Amino acid sequence: MIISAEQIEKIQEKAHQLGFVACGLTPLHPFVKEKTQFLKWLQNRHHGEMEFLERNIEKRFNPSSLDKNFRSAIVVLINYYSKENPVKNQIPKVSKYALGKDYHTVVKDRLCVLQQFINNEIAPMTGRCFVDSAPVYETQLAIDAGLGWKGKNTLLINKQYGSFVFIGEILSDLEVPENTTVEPNHCGNCTRCIDACPTGALQPDFLDATKCISYLTIERKSLQPSKYKTSPWIYGCDICQDVCPWNSNTQPTKIEEFSPKPFLLSAGIPEWEKLSAAEFDKIFADSPILRTGFKRMKRNLNEITKP
Predict the structure, then answer these.
(1) Minimal CA–CA distance to 63: which of 157, 169, 192, 209?
(2) Of 83, 92, 131, 286, whose Cβ has the fewest other Cβ atoms within 10 Å?
(3) Catalytic site includes residue 132
(4) Would you put residue 268 in left (φ > 0), alpha (ψ -120 to 50) or beta?
(5) Of these residues, 67, 132, 173, 286, which one is catalytic?
(6) pLDDT of 209-222, one tens digit each?
């Protein structure tokens, strides 16, 4: 039985109560065109050292293959834009998404509550919660659920909340109606993100990760210096989002866990240079920054401070 419009409204209402700024539902479909584009991207080695992207191709572009019972996705967005950003000219810079606690945990905890609500109050269901934690093409699921469009910076853009959002989803055995409110692409002729990218990583709807500052400071394993300038960024990069007109009126997040860590609000190069491995592990124990590790963060700092 397909769940009703009234039941969908109840799911969306609960999602908003949990802090999600948007929620949409969509039946699952194979992403045929996107798979073809992705395979070409891999073939051209634009993914650099991210070998994990070469695995589970079928699962990534056919979400039903993750579990034969999956029929639909309940997709949510959560705003992480912080009002308390580090000083504008502060060096080093950290991407806004990593200023607070690890989004994987923050978003998934709320998703699990939403799943339990649906199971208890809407309809019995079997499902799994995902937050950038499995080979799931989350951006396309969000588009199919009517939550935005893929911008020229390759990120999801929501008309009301811009691109400073995390995507989460519950893949489930629920039958849901086809979504008829897919958001058209509103980028138009704007190329601000492409023009602003200092390494030339962006082309329309295309990202060469090997040139992207986020890749160079987070995913790159080599401790050797990069041939691309990453300064003033020590972790990630927000340039293509900061210049996007759809982010010009972004409101601060209401999620307390995304509040910036005090160290990141005040630390300059001297504070980062004094940081020991033990101190690093303590400060960033619940942060996505921990995944990159102390050695690579020191590498990033050296690339900022070198002549």
Answers:
(1) 169
(2) 83
(3) yes
(4) beta
(5) 132
(6) 999 999 999 999 98
